[in-house]
From TrEMBL:
Its EC number is 2.7.13.3. PROSITE patterns: HAMP, HIS_KIN. It is an enzyme of class 2 (transferase). It comes from Caldanaerobacter subterraneus subsp. tengcongensis (strain DSM 15242 / JCM 11007 / NBRC 100824 / MB4) (Thermoanaerobacter tengcongensis). This is Signal transduction histidine-protein kinase ArlS. The keyword Phosphoprotein applies. GO terms for molecular function: ATP binding; phosphorelay sensor kinase activity. SMART domains: HAMP, HATPase_c, HisKA. Residues 49-76 form a coiled coil. It is found in: Cell membrane.
Amino acid sequence: MVKMKIKLLPQRITLKIALLYSAVFSFVLISLNASVLYTLKYYLIYQSMEQVSTQAEVIKAKLSEAKQNMDGALKDTAFSGIPDENIYVKIFDSKGRLLYLSKKLERVAIPYNTNLEVPVKVDEFDKDLVYLNTVFKKGDATFYIQVIKDMKNEYAFLKLLFILMFFADGAGIFISFVTGYFVTKRALRPVDYMIKEVKDIDAKGLNKRLKVYGEEDELTRLAKTFNDMLDRLEESFARQNRFVSDASHELRTPISVIKGYIDMLDRWGKDDREVLEEGIKAIKKETLEMESLVEKLLFLAKGDDRSIKLERESFDLKEIAEEVVREIKLIYEGKNVSLKGENVRINADKKLIKEVLRILLDNAAKYTSKNGNIEIEIGSGDEAYIKVKDDGIGIPEEDLPYIFERFYRVDKARSKDTGGTGLGLSIAKWIVEEHGGVIGVKSEVGKGTEFTVMLPLINDSK
């Protein structure tokens, strides 16, 4: 069974905004006109009530002033000045007999002795009426006066006004839609330009940027934000390409060495024991280096996609440093490695912090002389700190901003001899920052290098 989707709204944002603008304008216009009609209607009703009340008072005043008998007064005085042809007057005696009728109002029979002295609006007899019943006494005689106002002229005026407003509203809504559409289309013209420009941007053309001009409005800010995003994407792609290129280069070297030794073993190793042992030893060495490189690459890749979860625990930082110092002394015999400072407890991932210490001490050991000095200091203030200082070859000032970048080497010729891959400091920086800390470096060529790691003393588990 094929399901069909009914599109209730147009897809173009220009039409959507124009329709929304027209809907709001229509609601306001119709509400305003309805308020006007409603207010005018009740004003006309109020005015008609005032009219029948006034007319009743005039009639009573004239009857009071009349000196002749009541029959003559009714005919000659009371109804000589009715100002409106739609006003009808009836006078009854105390027994309900109709004494006088100014003119006949078809199919209308309103009780004369109810709702006395109170103007009343009724919608009966297919008419809209306002009437007033009042009592008049003269001597011993009692009369009931009923004044009725037929509001057909007022309601005809309201109907005409409603029709005029209806067509005016329709014209206004149509004009508002057309105006809103063209104004919106003009206002969103930069969006069409952005769409066209963005379609031309791909991975090979990230250097393109949207033009930003005009006032500082929402669309200008959108273009600037998009350009900022392109800057970040371009930088990210550049880092990624550089990373892939460097990783390929690093992997190509051990693979080439292994391939060379395999060829050598295939030719001469079968019969020459010395060649066989040399080849196996070299292949093992290169395999271990390649394994180490791949592990570091995987670690950084997992760090990039946030798949590494910190396993925090409370431990003594100085105790961890003592363990790493013992390891370094076994690996690099002859290095003068010393540890000082205080016991500092932190809440962190023990294995990862230990890896940071290994990386910093390994770097220090590689780039100091055989009898070089390495000092580690553990302490705390507002934060816990680790300082690793050596008196090695140092780092040129121009290289300091880049040493934490992946695969960056200060001395590329020397780095291969020392077995470096250019990933250690990148890993250390990631670990420290993931713990909410910072890592910094000071160095001077020929005098040595000092790395400082700052870590929070207390940090909630992530």
